[in-house]
What we know:
Layout: E1 5-8, H1 12-23, E2 28-32, E3 45-46, H2 48-54, H3 59-66, E4 68-69, E5 72-77, E6 80-86, E7 99-100, H4 103-116, E8 121-123, E9 127-133, E10 136-141, E11 146-149, E12 151-154
Parallel strand pairs: 1-2, 1-12, 2-8
Antiparallel strand pairs: 3-7, 4-7, 5-6, 9-10, 10-11
Helix pairs in contact: 1-4
Amino acid sequence: xxxxxxxxxxxxxxxxxxxxxxxxxxxxxxxxxxxxxxxxxxxxxxxxxxxxxxxxxxxxxxxxxxxxxxxxxxxxxxxxxxxxxxxxxxxxxxxxxxxxxxxxxxxxxxxxxxxxxxxxxxxxxxxxxxxxxxxxxxxxxxxxxxxxxxxxxxxxx
Length: 157
């Protein structure tokens, strides 16, 4: 079956998009050029708004089980303290705190949530070219395969 949306890129944006669409009964396919998930992180923080957005997916609960809560941000200039910013959710007008969780773990939790919905990331699928017509997009991958969808969502950086 042809997906409604083909998502290229399985980082936080691609995974989140796939999850939100699938929860709204949109058929998705998600592909990633890299053969394996990242094991290192390019980001450490998950902000309160992101946690609020993920609440209905179950991912917020999973993140909060693993993450460290940021209570304050200390800013320094040339080795000297400049200021301290309290990060209490109430003071920020948020339900959730700012938390620290390596991006690789956040991606793994999003991937797990997608797999529970029957969507698996197809790895080793590098987008090489695409063609758009009136009814959708045909994507060509480096391995010689093709995919067709009504919409292609680029989340590959």
